Q: What sequence folds into this?
């Protein structure tokens, strides 16, 4: 049994492919926890960043700079009374949030955080992903229908129309990226998520920059479609607050509502992960084929492969990031008002600074450093998309329904189709 | 299913004519409000929808009715003055100005020039505050959440000036019948000048966020179109009327207070759509700043209160006096029976009259436009219901 578990550690494939279900389960748990934590962090960041864009401070009361606000929020939601409207279809009402959450989380099975850091690697990974992520709309329709109320119904109908229209543009953009994987010596493309990243490594370019500007246009189409797909501003019509109160989750409260919330953010992370994997080189660091002059560090722990100076510099980035965060927290500790009531907050922020610095130190240890890099770069790229989501929300007004449809069918769809055809033509000619 | 001869026709649109039945699957009656995020208070709009298309609307008002006009009949003229602040509570100073001037006209007295200048400064600042609040909430209705905070930040500066002047921020009760009660505080002129130079670039900031924003333009252009003749038929006044190309502003047409002494333009639009109304109001904000800076420069010395008897007993008669409030023509019709209390006061509130246009503006448009149109009408339910 122990051999079975430890045996995987020397393997070069994902636990799913190695057939090691224990590690697959561990990965699933890790991803589940990681996503849930990321959603909590994302909520805090969104509130803070949006607040600073809007000349406010955002949460400041619960913990230093409101760091504990997400925990307080989720506690509040869990403790709230669970209301099911009297005339609602109770079973469907109960099932809808589960459906949405499961669809959002299942996608992460095939997302590669690193060459081996995925639950499994399917040979139809991207297809699986698109299929499962579009299941979420079913849950939204169910929620809208089961609520037996006008606003949710309209919200869910809007949502379904919107998701179906944008899925097409999205799919076309994805196909153009998949097509790019086949432009190699062997001429064999792949639908596997890991395969797509490896194809980018083999072709020495991120697909966003391949056949400039075709890759960028495809990424743009996908980036617009994914905002629409996740019902976020400026395409947040299904939950348009000023029109439909809260859209499809108007009648939901407490835990069920928080499931929708969780699903929304998980879906955002999922589609951003697809974008990162398909166009931005997945887990690869920037300039992956630039190694720099070989260096040797004496008396260092034994190290696999010859170490380039650039490789080494990039491998320090995760640790440096944590040190910078720790420095921010430390400066924040020093700048805390000298008031007896602030002592706990001060202590908390100081402890956070220490923890962050500690993580930074751990990330300096060579074996950890090597293995964590992939995940770090993947998360960093996803974070860029997450920031964009917040930025859109702070900047754009909301589209109207017919304008949204017009944009989807008359602009995004031809654009996606054009990019696909152009990619095929250019690929054959080049 | 509905009768094909009727669907889409004008008769089909009539609310009263057709009764909603369960089998009438094409129509959905949606109750918007009184608890709804973007009906600006407690307005209830019954929407008849065909999918997302609006087939008809019906406004239900009165949720904020406090009987202000009836209260007036049991108060003396002086006592009623603070009540008018509670009608359009985002433009309380304008309400006060209208009421005070109406009673002054009835009593045949005139406020001294200095008082008139103070009145103009505070009222124009109030117009700015009202338009800022409108811009923020209107943008919020259309989905842009950021401008709200910018406008509220700048509106705060106006409220600070009010607070320094008379102690109150919102329902200021700034003016009295016959002039002003309070002399300007030390540094009032400097404060106002500072505000003008502070807020001028801020208005550019709002415009930067919205005027050329593609989504904003798409959401507002051609939405809720109201032609000039339609406006006049419905009695619509204020920026809504001016955006339809009718150059009618009581500050120019029938100058009151000290308005005849200032240089300013009346911004007008051409299309009468939501986008033009937005442009007109933003241009009006700039004109208000122009008036304010002129008034601060030229403010005369002298008394701030006319000779007014302790007990106000206007002669028997009636008077109608109207001013250009931020939302349109605000008129007071006062009937005096010679006693200390008015026999009847009737307020002609701009919001109430403008709200009539809602149905005409949203028919055939989408649900999202209803929200945009309610926003662009700039109604305050305190004034609609009184």
A:
């Amino acid at each position: 049994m122990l051999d079975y578990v430890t045996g995987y550690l020397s393997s070069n494939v994902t636990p799913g492919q190695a057939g090691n279900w224990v590690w697959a389960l561990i990965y699933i748990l890790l991803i589940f926890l990681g996503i849930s934590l990321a959603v909590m962090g994302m909520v805090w960041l969104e509130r803070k960043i949006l607040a600073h864009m809007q000349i406010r401070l955002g949460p400041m009361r619960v913990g230093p700079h409101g760091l504990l606000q997400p925990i307080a929020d989720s506690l509040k939601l869990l403790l709230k009374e669970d209301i099911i409207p009297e005339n609602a279809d109770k079973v469907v009402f109960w099932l809808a949030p589960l459906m949405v959450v499961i669809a959002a989380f299942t996608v992460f099975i095939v997302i590669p955080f690193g060459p081996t850091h995925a639950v499994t690697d399917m040979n139809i990974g991207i297809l699986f992903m698109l299929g499962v992520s579009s299941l979420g709309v079913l849950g939204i329709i169910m929620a809208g229908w089961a609520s037996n109320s006008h606003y949710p119904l309209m919200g869910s109908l809007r949502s379904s129309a919107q998701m179906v229209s944008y899925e097409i543009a999205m799919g076309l953009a994805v196909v153009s990226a998949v097509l790019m994987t086949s432009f190699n010596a062997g001429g064999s493309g792949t639908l596997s998520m890991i395969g797509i990243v490896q194809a980018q490594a083999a072709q020495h370019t991120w697909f966003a920059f391949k056949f400039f500007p075709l890759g960028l246009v495809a990424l743009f189409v996908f980036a617009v479609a994914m905002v629409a797909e996740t019902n976020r501003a400026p395409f947040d019509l299904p939950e348009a607050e000023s029109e439909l109160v809260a859209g499809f989750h108007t009648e939901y409260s407490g835990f069920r509502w928080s499931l929708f919330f969780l699903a929304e953010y998980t879906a955002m992370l999922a589609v951003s992960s697809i974008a990162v994997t398909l166009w931005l080189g997945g887990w690869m660091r920037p300039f992956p084929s630039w190694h720099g002059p070989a260096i040797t560090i004496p008396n260092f722990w034994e190290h696999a492969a010859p170490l380039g100076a650039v490789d080494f510099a990039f491998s320090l980035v995760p640790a440096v990031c944590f040190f910078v965060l720790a420095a921010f927290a430390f400066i924040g500790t020093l700048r805390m008002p000298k008031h007896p009531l602030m002592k706990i907050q001060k202590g908390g922020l100081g402890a956070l600074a220490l923890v962050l610095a500690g993580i930074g130190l751990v990330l300096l240890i060579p074996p950890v450093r090597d293995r964590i890099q992939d995940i770090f770069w993947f998360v960093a790229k996803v974070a860029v998309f997450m920031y964009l989501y917040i930025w859109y929300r702070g900047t754009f007004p909301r589209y109207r329904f017919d304008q949204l449809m017009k944009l989807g069918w008359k602009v995004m769809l031809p654009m996606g189709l054009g990019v696909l055809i152009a990619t095929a033509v250019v690929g054959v000619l080049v | 299913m509905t009768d094909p001869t009727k669907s889409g026709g004008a008769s089909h649109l009539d609310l009263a004519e057709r009764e909603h039945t369960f089998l009438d699957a094409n129509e959905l009656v949606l109750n918007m409000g009184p608890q709804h995020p973007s009906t600006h208070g407690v307005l209830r709009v019954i929407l008849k929808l065909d999918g997302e298309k609006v087939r008809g609307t019906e406004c239900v008002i009165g949720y904020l009715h406090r009987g202000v006009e009836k209260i007036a009949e049991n108060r003396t003229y002086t006592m009623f003055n603070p009540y008018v602040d509670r009608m359009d509570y985002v433009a309380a100073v304008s309400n006060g100005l209208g009421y005070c001037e109406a009673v002054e006209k009835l009593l045949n007295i005139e406020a001294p020039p200095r008082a008139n200048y103070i009145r103009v400064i505070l009222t124009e600042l109030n117009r700015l505050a009202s338009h800022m609040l409108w811009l923020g909430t209107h943008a919020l209705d259309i989905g842009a959440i950021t401008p709200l905070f910018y406008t509220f930040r700048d509106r705060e500066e106006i409220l600070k000036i009010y607070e320094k002047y008379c102690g109150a921020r919102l329902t200021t009760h700034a003016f009295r019948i016959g002039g002003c009660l309070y002399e300007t505080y030390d540094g009032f002129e400097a404060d106002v000048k500072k505000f003008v130079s502070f807020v001028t670039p801020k208005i550019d900031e709002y415009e930067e966020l919205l005027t050329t924003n593609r989504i904003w333009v798409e959401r507002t252009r051609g939405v809720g179109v109201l032609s000039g003749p339609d406006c006049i038929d419905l009695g619509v006044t204020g920026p809504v009327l001016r955006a339809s190309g009718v150059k009618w502003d009581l500050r120019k047409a029938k100058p009151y207070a000290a308005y005849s002494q200032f240089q300013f333009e009346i911004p007008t639009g051409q299309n009468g759509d939501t986008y033009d109304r937005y442009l007109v109001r933003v241009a009006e904000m700039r004109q208000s700043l122009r008036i304010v800076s002129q008034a601060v420069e030229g403010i005369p010395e002298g008394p701030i209160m006319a000779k007014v008897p302790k007990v106000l007993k206007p002669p028997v008669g009636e008077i109608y006096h109207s001013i250009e409030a931020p939302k349109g023509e605000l008129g007071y019709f006062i009937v005096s029976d010679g006693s200390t209390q008015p026999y009847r006061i009737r307020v002609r509130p701009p919001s109430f009259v403008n709200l009539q246009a809602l149905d005409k503006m949203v028919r055939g448009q989408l649900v999202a436009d209803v929200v945009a149109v309610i926003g662009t009408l700039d109604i305050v339910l305190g004034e609609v219901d009184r």
